[in-house]
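Hallway conversation turned thread

IA: we were arguing at lunch whether anyone had actually written out Bax inhibitor 1 end to end. Turns out nobody had. So, for the record, here is the sequence (117 residues) and right after it the structure tokens. Reply here if something looks off.
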Amino acid sequence: MEAFFEGKTGSWGYDSLKNFRQISTSVQKHLRLVSTSPVYLTLCSALVASAAGVYLHILFNIGGILTMLGCFAGITFVMNTPPSENRKRLGYLMATAVLEGASIGPLFELILDFDPR
């Protein structure tokens, strides 16, 4: 943390953000491994799919108990699919994310009704 607060008290510079010398070698190795696998891309895609589920609820009012149960079923499918079937697992994950977004869609609809900015 000291790298962020070099110099004046309470301020930090952009150069301290680019300073990777103080990151341990194990963390650097982990970051290299993660950058070669699409973990964050998959997480971002699931977030976009969840936002699409919220949008589908706002358009068609599809969120509720059935989408919540479908989300739990999708989680079960993802957990029980062998890791060798990546495409099938990714499809289950995206479907689960859409259902999860539709399940929390009523909450977002309430937020939009309360403050429609």
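OS: looked through it. The radius of gyration is 21 Å.
IA: good, adding that to the notes. Residues 1-37 form one domain.
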